[in-house]
Amino acid sequence: MKIFLIIIVVIVILLIILYNYLVKLNIRCKNAWSQIDNQLKRRADLIPNLVEVTRGYATYESQVLIDVVNARNAVTSMSEIAKNSEKVSNSLNKLLMLSENYPDLKANEVFKNLQIELTGTEDKIAFARQFYNDTVQHYNTAITVFPNNIMAKMIGYKEKEYFKVNEEDKKIVKVEL
Known about the structure:
Blueprint: H1 2-55, H2 62-73, H3 78-97, H4 103-107, H5 109-144, H6 148-154
């Protein structure tokens, strides 16, 4: 009888440990996604400032400015965030390349600071995406291996979607001035 009770207690403890492990992984995925959101919000806050500073120098490249603002405003679902995030990055690259044609803009301290901030933010976004995908890979692996898959099904955990960029946005950005 004692052995049976010990076995039951050990099984219950293992189930609790397994449950807590899966919950921690799920929370970590949510945290990683929120880090992407934070960096995208930071970029969205910086873009209007960069656009305004650039607008005075680059009046005839208004389509680039419009593209940047439109891409920034078109974010909704997770897949849309991935898709539009790349569009914003590509538009920002075009916008930052405009500075090559405007020596005064390039020398403008506000523009330089905004450019540095946006470049840093783009790097942080790339890191946050990588961290999110690494976290999702760890989570997805954990919920599909035995015996975790049994517990994951019991608590309703399903595989999470990776942060993917569509093929069109992976092409090299062509800047035409």
